[in-house]
Design goal:
Length: 296
Amino acid sequence: MNTPDNNHSKPSKCTILEYSIIAIIVIVGIVAWKKGTLIIDNIKTAFGSAEKVTIDFNDQGTTIIKRNDVNEKASLLLSASDLWANSGLMVPAKKCITITASGKAQIAINDLIKNAEKDNKPNYLWTGPNGYEGTQFRAIPGYYSTFRILPEAPDGALLAYLQAPSDGEPDPGLNNPRPHNLNRCQCNDSHIFVIKNQAKICNTWDDDRRLWFVINDSVIENNLESKTAYIAAQKFLCRKSSEYEESKKNKSSYIKKNCTEDKYNRSWNNIVEQQYWNIWYDDNIGFFSIQINFDT
């Protein structure tokens, strides 16, 4: 009696591996050929219709999933140190998007390092996209809150902005940190949205709007108001430091060297000389992962 030839009953492991390698090569080849666009044709839906799904990678680093050439989903990483990041995405007129964010950011790395060196708990812990909603050292004195991108939102909270195609303003950034003439006013038609962990925002205008993101933090300016707030904050931080308390007990020279009006003024003058207005963004580290779902 003949017995089945088991050698031909299923592919060998080697054959499966070869097929897998060929599939990967084909996919990579498609991506390379399309210059950053992965195309999957003729995906059958439950209704049997053929669709085209593409995965694009734009110049800003955003991954975009399109269905029949219409944006469906997108994702990007936002660095905590970015003073506004352009997603490269346009939100269509009269359409809404749902934004979901996760991740961790630290917006006072200098404070974190100083305290870690002495095994002390930092004034600012790591935060997620909701930001610091409790009383923190920046919030208690109120020195910094006026200078946040959006003063009424918590430090560290995720914000989004819908930029008009030609509103005559510079792009959001160091030269325009509070776009759409917000400048610390309570504008009813603000184009800046508080996202936190998740929010649905709508482009209620008649034109498509470009989507930007930022972590809420402070940007100072070359004026007396900023100088006063900066020096007051430095005084507060110096008195809050462990070195300050040790100096009071041991009568060391720390206070005379570091907690004087002359030291504070020299620090401020150094900021002015360098035009270093984003100093509080440069001490931010961490990332938020942002997912965007477009209304279809």
